[in-house]
Amino acid sequence: MTWTEAAVVSRSAATPDIAVIDLAPVAGAAFPAYTAGAHIDVLIDSGLVRQYSLCGPPERGTYRVAVLNEPASRGGSRAMHALKVGDRLRISAPRNRFPLVRARRHLLFAGGIGITPLLAMVRRLRHERAEYTLHYCARGRGRAAFVADLADDPRVTFHFDDEDPGQLLDLARDLGGPRPGTAVYICGPDGFMDHLLGGAETLGWPKEALHKERFGDPPVVTGSSAGAFTVRLAATGAEYLIPEGRSVLEVLLENGVDAPFSCQQGICGTCVVRVLAGDPDHRDDVLTDEERADGLFTICSSRAFSPVLELDLT
Ligand code: FES
């Protein structure tokens, strides 16, 4: 990963828990352009890498991120909330694993801080005069970021947990059954994603119509693939035991293997390698069914059902 130094040029509070941070280049060159749904990786001082969606108007030349302060996190949100104007940090170029797709209409569902990539998408869709609807769910109006940016838009519906029950998200009403030419975008924390994706499946939506980005900590691995297995690197034949509770990535890095990685949560796709033999248990939230069928595998989060997994790594 190539890192670029960026400076904090503005910082404000969208809510008591959500900081909005604008970053600008330190050395003269402009930041690369990005498309709606893109994120940047941020290298936190402790060595953690975290992904934040870009949610500001792209024409400004700065990158805007919004960060929820999560006391239970591993330190990324705390470090981001401690930033002051003038502080510097290292960021990656934008990448987009959650782009807008060509569709006749776009149906967007945001849960809490999951509004960030969808806000950029709404701006883009407005600009293109495309047909879209956004459903924005949050615990309460005072805890939801960017309400003022969206309040005047008749195509946006808010759903707040602490207001009239009649306005809560109702999947039968707000998502409904599949409609040809409609793309659905879902972004939010685990509980929200599971509710939406489970509901969409029950309502009969095909997987190809659903586009998703999950916020939150890596999934807890349980079940038949949680135990130890061996990884063999095809190029060298070297074998490594992956014990229960440790990832392939952790073990490979510990043994000096130059493996690519970023989020370590199965959501960014940086660590993807090809499986040459064995039966993988995919525990990521980034690969499509086609990519999995094509042999791709995330070494930061996925495991194996078979005793040995051979990977296309040196
Ligand atoms: S490092 Fe991001 S998916 Fe593995």
From TrEMBL:
InterPro entries: 2Fe-2S_ferredoxin-like_sf (IPR036010), 2Fe-2S_ferredoxin-type (IPR001041), 2Fe2S_fd_BS (IPR006058), Beta-grasp_dom_sf (IPR012675), DmmA-like_N (IPR054582), FAD-bd_FR_type (IPR017927), FNR_nucleotide-bd (IPR039261), MRET (IPR050415). Keywords: 2Fe-2S, Flavoprotein, FMN, Iron, Iron-sulfur, Metal-binding, Oxidoreductase. Residues 1-101 form the FAD-binding FR-type domain. GO terms for molecular function: 2 iron, 2 sulfur cluster binding; metal ion binding; oxidoreductase activity. Gene3D superfamilies: 3.10.20.30, Nucleotide-binding domain of ferredoxin-NADP reductase (FNR) module (3.40.50.80), Translation factors (2.40.30.10). Residues 229-314 form the 2Fe-2S ferredoxin-type domain. It holds the Pfam family Fer2. Its cofactor is FMN; FAD. This is Oxidoreductase. It comes from Spongiactinospora rosea. The lineage of its organism: Bacteria, Bacillati, Actinomycetota, Actinomycetes, Streptosporangiales.
